[in-house]
């Protein structure tokens, strides 16, 4: 069994940092193997931690997935425009995949976006994450052109998939 809960920064900051580092390192290892480049992992995590308020209610969210009281997954949401939210840093450890955690995290973000009054929710995802793309599509996301608010540098956007769900 698993539990999904909203992060409490006073209690969960180390779990957030650890899961963000693990996710971005894993993703960068895959990008380097497939496409020959890396993005700055530690700098990205430190920037996000310094600006963690963007992931906090009312306009944002950090959800953590726990198995046996151990954090094994994370999903974040931030404001991306006046009526648009963005999914960020969604990750489930490989050993905990295929058990519904990713769907539960995504559903939690969709519910939070709806409750916050967003009209749409967007995301960007590396092209090799095909299982994640299938999850997003099964939840009503469709492919779109790259959006200007994405943190992906222009020269790398061809290696990403951009998606949106209208609420």
The fraction of residues in strands falls at 25-35%
**How many discrete domains?**
1
What is the oligomer described by this structure?
Answer: single chain
Shape: globular
CATH superfamily: Gcn5-related N-acetyltransferase (GNAT)
> Low-confidence segments, ≥5 residues, pLDDT <50?
none
**Tell me, what is the CATH class?**
Alpha Beta
Average of pLDDT: 94
Summarize the main sheet. 7 strands, mixed
Strand order of the largest sheet: 1-2-3-4-5-7-6
Q: Any guess at the CATH architecture? A: 3-Layer(aba) Sandwich
Structural class by secondary-structure content:
alpha+beta
Count of DSSP E strands? 7
Task: For the record, give the distance between the C-alpha atoms at the N and C termini, rounded to a whole number.
Answer: 29 Å
